[in-house]
Amino acid sequence: MGRRVVIAMGLLGGAGIVVGNRIQNVVGSTLNSIAPNNRLVSLLPGADSFQIYTVSGFPYESTTQYKLSVTGLVDTPLALSYRDLLDMEPTNLDKDFQCVTGWRVPRVKWKGVALSTILNRAGLKNGASAVLFQSFDGLYTESLTINQAKRNDVIVAYEMLGGAISEEHGGPVRLYVAPMYGYKSIKWLSGIEVSDKVVPGYWENLGYDVDAWIGSSNGRTDTPVD
Ligand SMILES: Nc1nc2c(c(=O)[nH]1)N[C@H]1C(S)=C(S)[C@@H](COP(=O)(O)O)O[C@H]1N2
Ligand SMILES: [Mo]
Fold this sequence. Notes:
five-stranded antiparallel β-sheet, binds molybdenum atom, alpha+beta, five-stranded mixed β-sheet, 12 strands, binds ligand MTE, globular
């Protein structure tokens, strides 16, 4: 897996998070028994609250520092500021968030820019068949096929839960891929690269399905998000 895996647990509403060694001290033996390989860890699953996941600590960028690069097979590479995103046509969604480990948060409010709007602004070149995503945590990656990326329920989000996206939830900007398991919704989004082929992302290299449809992948039968 490369670098250290930081495990954290969040409480609904950002009441608190516990990171790294501290949580391992608290639940050391439990951790070992449920996560012998330090894989994606789920602790004390609340029925319908977010858990905070990170594989590389909690990176921080202010909204004024923030830049989203759009590169690869595009007519016009972009470097979008937070302000640029706010000035683009917004999309509001009110949809569940489902992690592949089982927890689900119903009816989360999301606001952002449809990924398709950003791709349209950059202009797709011939051969554009996938979109690769990078995080400014420097480690996490994801990708979608171009058809998945064009769906109107796939957004570059700057608000969730009724306000700006908090640092632990991947602010100032994260992806939200409504119809797919949570691992597609890359946090601390920094780069969008249009490519000629899908490249498996961080967790996909560790065994999760590349096509991550809720209810019809990863051997799970969850209700799809509508
Ligand atoms: N950069 C980054 N993005 C990530 C992850 C991560 O560890 N790092 N975990 C993914 C997984 S598995 C899930 S379920 C969600 C969790 O989002 P949350 O931490 O806001 O609850 O983020 C996804 N995006
Ligand atoms: Mo997840």
